[in-house]
Amino acid sequence: MSVLERVRATALLAPGEEVVVLLSGGRDSVCLLDVAVQLGADVRALHVNYGLREQADADQAHCAGVCRALAVPLTVERPSRPADAPGNLQAWARDVRYAAAARLGERVAVGHTATDQAETVLMRLAASPGRRALLGMEPRSGRLVRPLLGVTRAETAAWCSARGLAWREDATNESDLYTRGRVRTRLVPLLAEIDPRAEANVVATAELLRQEAEVLDVVVETALAGRDHIAVERLAALPRALGRLVVRRLAEDATGALCARAATRLDDILALADGAIDVGDGARALVADGVLRFAPTPPLPIRQS
Fold first, then answer.
1. What is the pTM of this model?
2. Which candidate, 211, 206, 274, 277, places its Cα nearest to that of 247?
3. Are residues 189 and 279 in the same domain?
4. Taking each helix axis from N to C terminus, what angle separates 27-38 and 153-163, rounded to the nearest 10 degrees?
């Protein structure tokens, strides 16, 4: 099946539907922009020029040229990072472009590919325990869609070449400075030496686990029966795997954030008499009268000097 047909089958890009494509100028985003046009979507592009690389202005000019060739309107943002901006540079850059895209339209498309999916799963597995690390990126997450998750990076390059569309290469994507660069240039090639199907197998596993996760979510919801708490005696009677999932669900519902470490504290929670323990990731387990609830961990008190 061709790239165009695979993307059409996702139903993430529909004829006449408004979509903002995040356009960096790389092969994946150029491919996505062209495919969206080919599918008849009402497309506009967003390029964010952070001014952090010597090639930034040339990247912007290239994106403008691609958009002219495809008759797609282009919006360019040139943000400056505040000196007191929280988080790392990559996180700030991601937040800026997603916020800019949200101002332009309800649906935002990004060029994450199957290759990116494999890299993401491997990075998360190395950094975080639990099945969620293996689920990878979702094709749809709120207003964000990823139509190319079934397409490899090699295939986006082949598409662009066949269509006569040039792209820009960003050397920092393969730099050892960033975790993804190390995974891309070291780990993925090593896995390919073990088995050429490694990338495809990682992606297929993520998809299977995502489907199975839907079933597990139903099992957890059944165990909780719509409640935001559970009797400790009931929790202890559950199969251990289900008990861990219940603990994690309660912690994440209480904090509104991922709490991978909560599940690893099941034994500590079961041994807890009336009282509280912090289980990590900003979650606190509270047991009173034999009932377990979760709450966000309170902030540390401010010391008076």
1. 0.78
2. 277
3. no
4. 60
